[in-house]
Design goal:
By secondary structure, the chain is mainly alpha-helical. It has 6 helices and 3 strands, in the order ααβααββαα. Strand 2 and strand 3 form a beta hairpin. The termini are far apart. The model has no long low-confidence stretch (mean pLDDT about 90).
């Protein structure tokens, strides 16, 4: 006689992974809304941050940090360049290569974006006590340090 099917696991509490993913989705939605006044997408914002951190840098480095194909980074950089946030320049060590760097306007915008992002995150976590924030920071840092294998 076949056994009766097991009822689905319906626990009253969401799984830890689901909670973390929901928080991440919430932060991404808030971040996208925060960027709207500048007309910049989250992807473009990340590209600006990478370029600002590594400038001047080759497009391949930007693609590597964004984990996208080099041809895709060209579209992102074209968009940023068209709005005056970045400028391309020849690579002095390889005349076939191109580097990209922030313009003065791009640096100001990146600084404004970083300030807005920090303020939004501060607001998101405002209901947590200082102790809870410190604990969450420690736990998330440890998970990041340990990597996906947990060890």
């Amino acid at each position: 006689m076949p056994s009766a099917p097991r009822p689905p696991d319906v626990s009253p509490e969401p799984a830890l992974g689901e909670l973390v993913m929901e928080v991440a989705r919430g932060l991404r939605r808030r971040f996208a809304a925060t960027l709207e006044p500048w007309g910049i997408t989250p992807h473009e914002s990340r590209a600006l941050r990478v370029i600002g951190h590594h400038e001047p840098t080759r497009l391949g480095v930007v693609a590597q940090h964004l984990r996208i194909a080099p041809r895709s980074v060209t579209d992102v950089v074209d968009s940023l360049e068209g709005r005056g946030f970045v400028a391309r320049e020849p690579d002095p060590s390889d005349r076939r290569a191109t580097r990209v760097a922030l313009t003065a306007h791009g640096r100001r915008v990146l600084d404004e974006l970083d300030t807005a992002r920090r303020a939004d995150a501060e607001g998101y976590f405002a209901d947590l006590s200082d102790r809870d924030r410190a604990t969450l920071t420690r736990i998330l840092g440890r998970l990041l340090d340990d990597g996906p294998s947990g060890g």
